Amino acid sequence: MNIRRGRNRSIRIALTASAAALSLGVLSACGGAESGGSADGKLAVTASFYPLEFLAEQIGGDHVDVTTLTGPGVEPHDLDITPRQTGRMSEADVLLYLRGLQPAVDKAVDQAGVQNTVDAADLTTLEAHGSSSGDGHDHGEEEGHDHAEEEGEGHDHAEEEGDGHDHAEEEGDGHDHGDSGLDPHVWLDPVKYAELADGVGEVLQKADPDHAADYRKNAEALTGKLKKLDQNYRDGLKNTDTRTFITTHAAFGYLAERYGLDQESIAGVDPESEPSPARMKELQKIAAVEKVTTVFFETLASDRTAKVLAEDTGLRTGVLDPLEGITDKSQGDDYLEVMEANLAALQKALGAK
């Protein structure tokens, strides 16, 4: 099905996507088989990693051929792209990526020159998240649930903010967020992910107007499922013994903010960064004060530091999947299933009632 592998300061980014379609083609997947053009006349869509691949497949349906840059089991942050792969990127009709997540992809996209190139960060609002989601436990209680209620299902927020072009004129071309410390993990918030789905649907409609009605219908169906997922999280995490959870790296800042939780991470947004001894001691204190029960690790990164902290504090370990890719170790077959598994893991760790 798929080739898989994913401070509260807002910045408005401009959506830049063209309506013109290029010659049909498909990009090779990293570590996978290479192919040339789309012989069956379908729209050729290249996605940089799994969350965008999932959107393209769900919304595109039978009208698209989707290829991903990030092969199964590959950590997206560590992806390398060959010059040959960069050359083949120009054959795609639509190219979906998320600038700031994968440096190698950012460079290759700039070189490929695909006209229908869409930076997913242009479809929503990025924020900066540190090693925790806010100023501590009180932040989650004071701001988390109100924030979620104010945002609603996410679409009103997008409409209120406008299309982002005015901001782009003020901020520049919108492509500097990779170096600005903004958190790219927007897909872990179902509301923001729905905003991405809306944007991808619009891009496919413009690139392939003959099937615009189907793309629109599929996008609406997917955002409906994401709205239900959002409600499941609201209901499932409404009453818990603690609001704090510990992860190996700070991938869950958007999710934590949405549902009034406090994320404390061993590393920062970069999963490969090493924690300092001072940070490990700080987390031990946080775990005791906030009644933390579990240290979460993820499927595509090392669990070594999580196990060290768990042993030092007498806590359990568990999996909280950042959904950067799907493998046979994933707790589900697709985005929706893994997100439900993440909810169950959080409910258990936080003592949901």
Task: Provide an overview of this structure.
- The chain is of the alpha/beta class.
- The chain is built from twelve helices and ten strands.
- The strands form three sheets. A four-stranded parallel β-sheet has the order 3-2-4-5, with helices on both faces.
- Helix 11 (304-313) links the parallel strand 9 and strand 10 (316-319).
- The chain is globular, with a radius of gyration of 20 Å.
In short:
Helix content is 41%, strand content 11%. The chain has 353 residues and is an alpha/beta fold.
Secondary-structure topology with pairs:
Blueprint: E1 10-12, E2 43-47, H1 50-60, E3 64-68, H2 83-89, E4 94-97, H3 103-112, E5 117-119, E6 125-127, H4 137-151, H5 155-161, H6 165-171, H7 190-207, H8 212-236, E7 244-247, H9 253-258, E8 262-265, H10 277-289, E9 294-297, H11 304-313, E10 316-319, H12 335-350
Parallel strand pairs: 2-3, 2-4, 4-5, 7-8, 7-9, 9-10
Antiparallel strand pairs: 1-6
Helix pairs in contact: 1-7, 1-8, 2-3, 7-8, 8-12
Secondary structure class reads alpha/beta
What is the terminal-to-terminal distance?
36 Å
Radius of gyration: 20 Å
Query: Any low-confidence stretches, pLDDT <50, length ≥5?
Result: 1-37, 133-179
The beta-strand count equals: 10
What helical percentage do the residues reach?
40-55%
Report the biggest beta sheet as strand number plus sense, adding barrel if it closes: 4 strands, parallel
N-to-C SSE series? EEHEHEHEEHHHHHEHEHEHEH
Quote the beta fraction: 5-15%
Shape: globular
Order of strands in the sheet with most strands: 3-2-4-5
**Overall average pLDDT:** 78
Please work out how many helical segments DSSP would assign. Answer: 12
